[in-house]
Amino acid sequence: MDDRSEQREVLEAAMLAGHILLENGAEIFRVEETMDRICHHYGIQSGSSFVLSNGIFTTAGNQREEIFAKVQHIPVSGTHLDRVAAVNQLSREIEAGSFTPGEVKEKLNEIQKMPGKPKQMQILASGIGSACFCYLFGGNLKDASAAFCSGVLLYGYLIYLAGPHLSKLVGNMGGGAFVTALCTLMYLLRLGDHLNYMIIGSIMPLIPGVAFTNAIRDIADGDYIAGSVRMLDALLVFFCIAMGVGLVFGLFHRFTGGGLL
Amino acid sequence: MTAVYETAAAALGTVAFALLFGVPAIYYPYCGLIGGTGWLVYSMLAQSCSEPAAALFATIAVIFLSRIFAVRKQCPVTIFLISGIFPLVPGALVYWTAYYIVTDDTALAARTGFLALKVAVAIVLGIVFVFELPQGFFQFAAKKDRQALDEKGRK
Q1: Where are the domains of chain A?
Q2: What ipTM describes this predicted complex?
Q3: pTM, whole model, 2 decimals?
Q4: Neighbours of B68 (CB within 10 A)
Q5: Tens digits of per-residue pLDDT, B16-36?
Q6: Inter-residue contact A242 to A177 (CB < 8 Å)
Q7: Which residues of chain B from 80 to 139 reach within 8 Å of chain A, CB to CB?
Q8: Domain hosting residue B22, numbered range
Q9: B82 in any annotated domain
Q10: A contacts of B24 (beta carbons < 8 Å)
Q11: In chain B, how many domains are there?
C-alpha cells in the first residue's frame, strides 16, 4: 500500500461511496462509518472524514501516507434507498472479499447509475398511497377513489413541474394548494363525501418523512448540525404544505362565504 | 372487521410509499408488515390511552421490527424504518391545524398544533429508545450460517 496512486484511488472510492449514501437518504453515521471501513480495509490509517447534511470533507496524510484532501458539496436530491442498500452490500463484500480499489470504484459508478422506478409506477404508487391513507384517516371508499385521482395528479405535478422547475418551498406550497383546489373541486362535483379526509390522504406524498426520520436519528447519534438542518428542512416543508392548504381554503372561504367549510 | 381493513390499508399504503422511496422490491412485504403492525398497535391503543402514548408504543413496535428485519436481511435499517413509520407521522394533525387557523378557530388550532407536536415528540422518543438497544440484542434474528458476518453488522 505504498503506491500513491492506489491510495488516492481508495480515498476517491470512499468519497464516492459517501456521496452516494448521503445523496440518497442515509444517516450521517452510516456515511462516516462506511467511508472509514473502506479506508481501513485498504490500509489507510490516517483517513478521516467530516460529514454534514449536504457536504463531505475528507482528508488523509501523515508521515508515511500522502496528503489527500477533498471537499464535496452534495445537494440533497430524491431518496433512492435501493442505492443505499447496494452500497451497504458492497461495503460488506469489500470487507469479506478481495476487490481492488479500481473495481470498487467501477461498482460504485454502476450503483450511481442504477435506474429508479419508472415514472408511471411512481405516479401510480402515489395514487395508491393517497387512497390508502385517506381511508385510514376516516374516509369512505368514495373519498379514497377521489384521493387516488388527486394523488396521481399531485405526483405528476411533482415530477414534471415542481421537481425540475420550482424551489422546494414554492413547490411544496404549490403542491398543498394544488391538492386542496383539486379536492375541493371534486367535493363540489360530489365525487367525494368528506373534503377533509380527501385532502389529508392526498397530501401524504408531500410529507417529508425521510427528512424527519433521518433528522431524529442524526440528532440521536450526536450529529447535531446535520440533524438540525434536516429537522429544519422537515419543519419548513410541513409549514409550506400547511400554508398552501390554508391559502386555497382561505380563498374558497371568501368566495363561498364560509358555506364550504 | 374495520381494524382488518384499516391494517390492510396501512400495509398497502406503506408499500406504496416504499416504492416512492426506491426500496428494493424484495423488501416490500416486510415494509407492509411493519407499517400494518404500527398502525394496528396505534389504533388499538388510541382507544384506551392518549394519542401521543399510542404513537410512542406504535413507534417502538415499528422500530423493533425494523431492526429485527435489518439484522435478518443484512441491510440498512433505514429501508424498513422510513416507510414503516409513515402511517404514524402526524400529517393529519398538521392539516387540521391549518384548517382551524383558516376557519378562525384559534383555540382549537393551538390545541391541535400542540397535539401534533406531542405526537412528533413521542415518535422521537420511540426512535431514540429502541436505537439505544445494543446491536447484539438483535442477534437472535440473524441467520445461523451468517452469524460471523453479522458480528460486524451495523444498526
Answers
A1: 4-112, 119-256
A2: 0.83
A3: 0.84
A4: 19
A5: 988 888 888 888 999 999 999
A6: no
A7: 81-83, 85-87, 89, 91-92, 94-99, 101-103, 120, 123-124, 127-128, 131
A8: 2-88+122-150
A9: yes
A10: 81-82, 85
A11: 1
